[in-house]
Write a structure and sequence with these properties.
mainly alpha, Lysozyme, two-stranded antiparallel sheet, 7 helices, 62% helix, globular
């Protein structure tokens, strides 16, 4: 009799254990399902890299690193070297470009004037379309593209007027047509050209002093 009771007890415990396991499995399944529904969706991080195209070109003669004098102005050495390279390619005095940048924008690459002149060399909006078509320079607030286009423009005038910087500066400031009309009326220089050339002399003097120190 005692043995029979023990056998019955074992059967009862086993049944309870089976029912408990079934309940646990059901609870786990429900919890897993709810977790999948309520869990936040995985986010995929995408890194977007913006490529800025700097005008590139080849030239017969570019300055050696030792030939470059970095002026104490708020322009990076990378940009200053770029200015030297473009000027060497266009046969434009680098000191002229620094003088123009100082006068035009005070070295602020993001400035836009009330007359729609942009960036370091204050290139007017009327020129942006053809500059983009000619040189693929679409952002005149990018200092590299702005300087590249500015040197190209003044360089074309320097070449056209046989190295006459006063005439080149007048054409840069007034447009070629406006400058020619001024010359026809006896105007040989304007405040803009004399101011730029005065600043250019200052940069030339700094260069000469630097060369003396190297010697």
């Amino acid at each position: 009799m005692a043995t029979e009771c023990r056998r019955t007890k074992k059967r009862v415990n086993r049944n309870r254990l089976v029912r408990l396991l079934i309940v646990l499995v059901v609870i786990a399944a429900i919890a897993f399902g709810i977790g999948r529904v309520t869990a936040p969706a995985k986010t995929k991080t995408v890194t977007v890299t913006e490529t800025v195209e700097v005008p590139a070109y080849s030239a017969n003669k570019l300055p050696e690193t030792s030939d470059i004098f970095y002026f104490d102005v708020p322009l990076s050495h990378s940009l200053q070297r770029f200015i030297y390279e473009v000027c060497a390619d266009e046969n434009v005095p680098v000191t002229l470009i620094y003088a123009m940048i100082e006068h035009e924008s005070q070295f602020n690459p993001e400035i836009i004037s009330k007359t729609d002149d942009y960036g370091l060399m204050q290139i007017n909006a009327v020129n942006h379309t053809w500059l983009n078509e000619e040189y693929r320079c679409a952002d005149m607030l990018d200092p590299y593209q702005n300087v590249f286009c500015g040197v190209k423009i003044i360089g074309s005038y320097v070449s056209r007027y046989d190295g006459d910087l006063t005439k080149a500066l007048m054409a840069y400031n007034m447009g070629d047509y406006g400058a020619r009309k001024a010359w026809e009326n006896g105007v040989k220089e304007i405040t803009y050209s004399t101011t730029i050339l005065g600043l250019m002399d200052n940069y030339e003097e700094v260069c000469h002093e630097q060369q003396k120190d190297r010697e």
